[in-house]
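Researcher: Final request for today, and then I'll write up notes for the group meeting. The sequence and the SMILES for zinc ion follow.
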Amino acid sequence: MNDQMKDQQTKPEDSMGKLKYYVIHCADTPPGMEVTKGMLEEWHMGPCDQVDGTVKYKGKIYRSRKSLPNEFLNGNFIAYLRGRGWDRLGYSELIHWDGKREIITPFDEDAFVESDEMTWGVAGYNAVSRHIMLAGGKGQLNRFSDHFTQDQEATLLQCIKRTILHHPDITIVGHNQLAVKRCPSFNVYDWLYSHRMQKFGVIDIVNE
Ligand SMILES: [Zn+2]
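Model: Predicted protein-zinc ion complex:
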């Protein structure tokens, strides 16, 4: 996942909007590898070295790694972590390899993405999106079943159906339909079609 989300940061346009997209992501991890909320905290919120020598951590800029606070993320002293420096996670929901769903950034089901519900999944779309991530997805293949388990598929379908019930006008997209990325390593429209839910997807790259 480290390359996928490079350079995504808080942008001014990321202020609260009406929920419009349910965006599917993958962790870009090998098959069978567990991905936890703690790992995501390391990857997303861990200190990020800036070109000018300063260090970004939880959205704030520090003069150097020596000036970082004495804190731990996922049990690791932050001074030795390399992350994105974000002030929050990139996703709201995580689907583990065994199909278990975990809410990692709480949200309610009203029509709006409140600022504390927002996650940093796709720069420029976060104010109108909820992001869900599947453990797995590493590699060049292109079908859902090449990368993920049947348990994950069942859970993702449940999550999508639940979201559609609360938000009938929502559009289901892959990260790669909003930005030039491989994530989530399968074609979301084709996959929705195979489950007779194409009405909630879009074929073309969304570019608004
Ligand atoms: Zn993604």
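Model: The helical segments are 37-45, 144-147, 150-166, 188-194. The radius of gyration is 17 Å.
Researcher: Thanks, that's everything.
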